[in-house]
């Protein structure tokens, strides 16, 4: 199987590296100094599960150069999906499988707007990793895991094949009974902590210590649940409490990646997180005042970051 990993950041670099380390045919699309470093010296991964270094089959910035892929793993940010999907369109064959691993609730829908529905799976991942320097990924914490499935939750032949490939590479993976619910459970957590973290610019423990901010965070999560329920996602109070168990267990000093992007003046996933909840709430008749407050306060900074990155 020919595998293409598009985006070699913390997610794509770790999981793509593991697949390459298992001897699978892995090509990678990267950019800038990171690309040059991998081409010259290979991809180094420092991991709590053991360090390794690999030389992928091909590393390039040009999609047209890669072998025709059977499986494409997207290791990009959710806001990059439309542009990348257009770039990938020429190499998508009838049986090409596309597996998105981004945070966010509507990545599948974004892909379907541009690429054939038959090619697209739904998915997410769990990992704390990042590019430490060009050519090196650091996996700092969390047992890496990929959760994926067909949109209709069928246990198709291709799903089972990917499961076997991930097993072969030593990557923990799961095919859930309801992939949409799994995506929204993670989205509930990441959206709840990211926007308010970007707005306050303090780590999670400082937010927890403030009665006002903690209450605001819970109200934000309740709005996300109501929007999800309006879309047919079976979220309930049990999922709310589950998310806050995770939030309450986060170590002091913890910040979300989107929060760090906002604080560093980079383009972030604000539009795909709080912005998405505001827009879907308006469409579905669900009130989202807390998410709108967070979104509107951060939007000018997001727009400035987007302009500066063009």
TrEMBL record:
Entry keywords, A to Z:
NADP, Oxidoreductase, Pantothenate biosynthesis
Pathway it works in: Cofactor biosynthesis; (R)-pantothenate biosynthesis; (R)-pantoate from 3-methyl-2-oxobutanoate: step 2/2
Q: Superkingdom of the source?
A: Bacteria
The UniProt record lists the Ketopantoate reductase C-terminal domain at 178-302
Q: What is its EC number?
A: 1.1.1.169
The record's section on SUPFAM superfamilies has: 6-phosphogluconate dehydrogenase C-terminal domain-like, NAD(P)-binding Rossmann-fold domains
Catalytic function, reaction form: (R)-pantoate + NADP(+) = 2-dehydropantoate + NADPH + H(+)
Q: What class of enzyme is it?
A: oxidoreductase
Q: Which GO terms describe its cellular component?
A: cytoplasm
What are its GO biological-process terms?
pantothenate biosynthetic process
List the molecular function annotations (GO) for this entry. 2-dehydropantoate 2-reductase activity
Q: Where is the Ketopantoate reductase N-terminal domain?
A: 3-152
The residue stretches assigned to a coiled coil in this entry are: none
Q: What does the record give as the function of this protein?
A: Catalyzes the NADPH-dependent reduction of ketopantoate into pantoic acid.
In the record, the note on similarity to other proteins reads: Belongs to the ketopantoate reductase family.
Q: What is this protein called?
A: 2-dehydropantoate 2-reductase
